[in-house]
From TrEMBL:
InterPro entries: Aminotrans_V_dom, PyrdxlP-dep_Trfase, PyrdxlP-dep_Trfase_major, PyrdxlP-dep_Trfase_small, SP_NH2Trfase/AEP_transaminase. Substrate binds at R344. The lineage of its organism: Bacteria, Pseudomonadati, Pseudomonadota, Alphaproteobacteria, Hyphomicrobiales. GO terms for molecular function: alanine-glyoxylate transaminase activity; L-serine-pyruvate transaminase activity. It comes from Mesorhizobium denitrificans. This is Alanine--glyoxylate aminotransferase family protein.
Length: 392
């Protein structure tokens, strides 16, 4: 074994957490200021302003100080009341998971569930809203990461908005890796974080909240207050004139600042383009090598994660183990329903560079061949190079 499991791998190509940009690591190393120091309060206000710009929001986003599962659970706890009828859209593990939280706050839960290699059809949502005018809240995961598939949230958002419902979107693993913003999908609560395509550590939630969602949460007597799950308490925390409800994650804010600077300075369109190109090259290579993509069609395949279906008769875990021990390359497994059925190659933040598709293809193909497959790794590399060079 060339690469010991006790030493760091050479290349981490996971679907989150991802290796951070060097500039983010330097950001994390900045001084940890006292949170009530005026310099920190001004800094915090500026960081929220940068997040607002990145999210193309007209109002200030909210930062919660825990990784995005906190934001998702807080959204359910704050917005959903026992009187609400929730339509949860399920095309994967995260979509399914949100339903369990929704159910905790309202007994009225409807779901549309599709196979975990497919995406939600907007027509099915339109039909459901028509059949159930009592639906008040719709929840959807944009990029269901354990599947590597994308839901059409802008179309779904337009339908929910016309229906007069509230929309909760999990955009944790898509925001900053493709064109998606809270206003594009008319989200009332849009949940994302720095730990995926922004290339920072996984320790904060960033929330876009609409005016009407603020009003609904504030009117909800049961919405968490004086709690880690509170969104309401943090409404004005962005302002240097407001005290923090509790100590913010100062070092993480330092890292987020650096990540947002990188994103805004490189230019969002350029960042999205290198995510898309890396994924396109990866898919071309996977297919040319004789493997298949998990997503039912290219149209719904994520630009930030490529999920490759595990060939018949192969134990998925052995692929990842061989890729790491032979080549020092780390991939992500599936999760719950998709565990063992696919391997995920992340293209997020610093690893959303086409050359990493080549590294991924060689390590992945090599690992499978070590397991007895006879894949044409060279053909995969050539196909990926053709995609990359066509874009040059
Ligand atoms: C990563 C991710 C989250 C954050 O939760 P984890 O604790 O990292 O699982 C939430 N939603 C999606 C779609 C994600 O990819």
């Amino acid at each position: 074994m060339r690469y010991s499991e006790h030493a760091n791998p050479v290349i981490t190509l996971t679907a989150g957490p991802v290796n951070c940009y060097p500039e983010v690591l330097r950001g994390l190393g900045r001084t940890v200021l006292y949170d009530y120091d005026p310099a920190f309060q001004l800094f915090y206000e500026n960081v929220v302003g940068k997040a607002q710009k990145a999210m193309r929001l007209s109002s200030k986003p909210v930062i919660l100080h825990g990784e995005p599962v906190l934001g998702l659970e807080a959204a359910a706890a704050s917005l959903i009341t026992p009187d609400d009828v929730v339509l949860n859209l399920v095309s994967g593990v995260y979509g399914k998971g949100f339903g369990y939280w929704a159910k905790r706050y309202s007994p009225h839960l409807l779901e549309i569930e599709v196979p975990y290699n497919e995406a939600i059809d907007p027509q099915a949502v339109a039909d459901m809203l028509k059949a159930h005018p009592e639906i008040t809240i719709v929840s959807v995961c944009h990029h269901d990461t354990p599947s590597g598939t994308i839901n059409p949230i802008d179309e779904i958002g337009a339908l929910v908005s016309a229906h007069g419902g509230y929309l909760i979107v999990d955009a944790v693993s898509s925001f900053a890796g493709m064109k998606t913003h809270p206003d594009d999908c008319k989200a009332d609560i849009y949940v994302t974080g720095p730990g995926k395509c922004l290339g920072a550590p996984p320790a904060l939630t960033i929330l876009g909240v609409s005016e009407r969602a603020w009003a609904k949460m504030k009117a909800n007597k049961a919405a968490p207050r004086a709690s880690m799950l509170s969104i309401v308490d943090w409404e004005n925390a962005w302002s240097r004139d407001q005290p923090f409800p509790f100590t913010p994650a100062v070092a993480e804010i330092n890292g987020l600042d650096a990540a947002l600077d990188l994103y805004l300075n490189e230019g969002p369109e350029a960042v999205w383009a290198r995510h898309a190109l890396t994924a396109k090259a990866m898919r071309a290579g996977v297919v040319a090598m004789g493997l298949s993509i998990w997503a039912a069609s290219d149209k719904i395949a994520s630009p930030t994660t490529t999920s490759v279906r595990t060939p018949e008769g192969v134990d998925e875990k052995t692929i990842r183990e061989a890729a790491r021990s032979r080549y020092g390359v780390v991939f992500s497994s599936g999760r719950s329903e998709t565990l063992g059925k696919l391997t995920r190659i992340g293209h997020m933040g610093p690893t959303a560079q086409p050359i990493y598709a080549i590294a991924a293809l060689t390590a992945f193909g090599g690992a499978l061949n070590a397991a007895g497959q006879k894949l044409a790794v060279g053909k995969g590399v050539e196909a990926a190079m053709a995609v990359i060079d066509a874009d040059a």
